[in-house]
Write the structure tokens for this entry.
Amino acid sequence: MIKSKSLPPSISKHILHQLIGKKVTGLVRYSWWAKEEVTNECHIRKEQTFALTAGSLAVIFEDGNVLGVASDPSMNSVIVWLDHACNQVDINPPLCDDPDLFPILATDKIYSEPVWEKFIGSTLTAFSILKNKEMSAGEAAVPSELGLCFYFNNNECFIASHGLHDGSDDFSVLMDNQINSVIKSTLEEYDFL
């Protein structure tokens, strides 16, 4: 699901900047399928469900703000939006209220790898963007922000990805070592806040 106020990270600096220095209290993928069905639908192992299912990511912060993250093939880019703002009324229903989506927690013992748990309770310290070093004219005409890197105080990072695991236009949530090695060699990282 793409929210009406969703934009690429470089255009959403005002949203992202206010989250730096905040502690993450939860990571939830809102899957198109129940977690028990994802293995068959996506042809992946059970423990890869959180990272590779189809659907958005909600990053929940200690102050009640929730950042929504997904990707938009028409922009060839990761997109973000404030899914829930603790100090205002939500314009659109938040992901957690969508009856057609299935929540999968980063802490799920079966459908998530243990690596995701280390982000819960960690403080967000920075963001960066991953883009291709060289782009076609079509890619250059749209944002083409293929990855949004979330950096934390425990020297860990995860990447909200637009196809970086397999070259598709699918959204995924990855650790750096899960980026396809051929794709990784074509990327450049930009600090933008």
Residues 9-191 form one domain. The CA atoms of residues 34 and 154 lie 32 Å apart. The helical segments are 13-17, 35-42, 49-52, 137-140, 181-184. The longest strand covers residues 124-132.
